[in-house]
Amino acid sequence: MSDGAVATTLFGVFMVATVALGLLAVRGRGGGGGLAEWSVGGRSLGAVFIWVLMAGEGYTSFSYLGAAGWGYNFGAPVLYVVAYMSCGYAVGYVVGPMLWSYARQHGLVSITDMVAHRYGRPWVGAAVAVLVTVFLLPYIQLQITGMGVVVSTISYGAISLNWAYFIGFAVTTVFVVVSGLRGSAWVSVLKDLLVIVTLAFLALYVPVHYFDGYGDFLGRLVDEKSAWLTLPGSGGSPYGEGWFATTTFLNALTVVIFPTTVAGYLGARSADGLRRNAIWLPAYNVLLFVPMLLGMAALFVVPGLTGADSNLALFKLVVDSLPAWAVGIIGVAAALSSIVPMAVFMLVIGTMWGSSVFSLVPRWRESSSAQKTWSQVVVVVAGALALVLTYSAPNTLVRLSLISYEGMAQLVPMLLVGLMWRRLSLVGALSGVVVGVGVVCGLVFSGRDPVWGVNAGIVALALNLGVTLVVTYVRPADRDARLDRDVLARDPVGG
Question: 232 to each of 66, 237, 241, 245, how far by Cα in Å?
Fold first, then answer.
């Protein structure tokens, strides 16, 4: 059997197992229940499932491709990923239980629900759902693209990019539509086991196989590639100390309101479980050092990679030196690192539209089953749209992805400040969002990110917050603003 056939067979077996796990997740649950059961696992997921789900959402195909590519191209700046995720978990220790309590008290299932309830205007939730969809679609497309690259590479070309794209879309859509968040959590267990085993193996294998161990590898790195070990990194990188600090701060704030993160919060059985997870989740970030380090190891083994090829730095080390069965297993781990976050992205888009947009229709407003059905339809449509654009206009969503995280950051004042400050008015919050998103788009698409050496999103967020406060001071919220003060007063961190 050829190398391509061996790796492809292994990949196929694991994809079938993935779908089976998703289907088993809802066995005996009467067709999956209503919208809350499908979208947030009935708010009953235990600490282990929440841990692997939230870790899995943060560990995407970027971890195998982008992290290694950034390590190869720039070096030290890639450590911002570890920095912001660890800081974000610390912020989440406070924010996660707060959002969980507010959502549980009022039967809410997404950030768009929270915004609509807080400001007492259903159309605001629908508008935010549309905006957030624009920011999340690029992530679905990037996961489809990442999985396609991985699968085509580890199959030694036996599976084409186009077929790999479709397989990723089809597998993810099947188990998300049927099993929702619970299925994603179950698949995350399989993914995490493979990720931990394969990265632990590579962390030991590559330095020993290509060098004489870590001593020789790190010695050569210090002597020959010292620029990769300091900020701003190599090759005239614009990612210096100011960018690193502001990006870490911005992303740590943003990750706690990212719809996929919030889906994990709301699926938890208890607020205490979220606090325990916030303590232990940073341990998972240790794994991120492996692809970053191996990306720099590839500088000596496969020098001269440019453009998109640099993202394959890790896999070039793997394919050139390991037997096909090992390549297949490592590829499956990377593929599942695309499928799990892609599933959660698709799920939250469907949930937002089902609970916020379609709830504007009177006859669906009180029907959880109808909202769930339409949410599942949106899952398929969103995934199909990302797939079609991957084939026909791959650069369209890639350009939008430039503003995804920085754009989502502009919802921080509307959601977090709004939940903690009763006087924040709707007009103030909306004015801030409009200014913030406008500034982000202007700076990013004109090539001014970083601007003045800092993340463009932090500049936009500062202007956003300033406008929000000024407009609220001029036009404060009415006394009957929809904020349940009692819930937050009883436990400021949402116990």
Answer: 17, 6, 7, 12
Q: Helices marked H in 211-311 — which ranges?
A: 214-224, 241-255, 259-266, 271-280, 289-301
Query: What 3 state SS string does 86-135 have?
Result: HHHHHHHHHHHHHHHHHHHHHCCCCHHHHHHHHHCCHHHHHHHHHHHHHH
CA distances to 106, 152, 218, 352 from 222, rounded to whole Å, are 56, 34, 6, 49
Rounded Cα distance, 287 and 334, in Å? 13
pLDDT tens digits, residue range 217-272?
Answer: 999 999 999 999 999 998 788 899 999 999 999 999 999 999 889 988 988 888 99
d(CA 124, CA 456): 26
Name the percent of the chain in helix, strand, coil, to the closest 5: 80, 0, 20
pTM of structure? 0.88
- Interatomic CA distance for residues 291 and 69, integer angstroms: 9
Round to whole Å and give the CA distance between 327 and 151.
10
Q: What is the pLDDT of residue 2?
A: 84
Q: Are 244 and 83 in contact (CB under 8 A)?
A: yes
At 328-353, the pLDDT tens digits run 999 899 888 888 888 888 999 999 99
Q: How far, in Å, CA of 46 to CA of 41, rounded?
A: 10
Of 120, 140, 116, nearest in space to 129 by CA: 116
Judged against a pLDDT cut of 70, whether residue 487 lies above it is answered with: no
Angle (CA) 411 366 382, round 5° = 50
Tokens of 271: 């607020």
CA gap 374, 376 in Å, rounded: 5
Q: How far apart are CA 341 and CA 404, in angstroms?
A: 15
Q: Compute φ and ψ for 164, nearest 5 degrees.
A: -65, -40
Q: Are 19 and 184 in contact (CB under 8 A)?
A: no
Nearest Cα neighbor of 266 from 55, 485, 38, 422 is 38
The CA distance from 80 to 288, in Å, is 11
pLDDT in tens, 184-226: 888 888 888 888 899 899 999 999 999 989 999 999 999 999 9
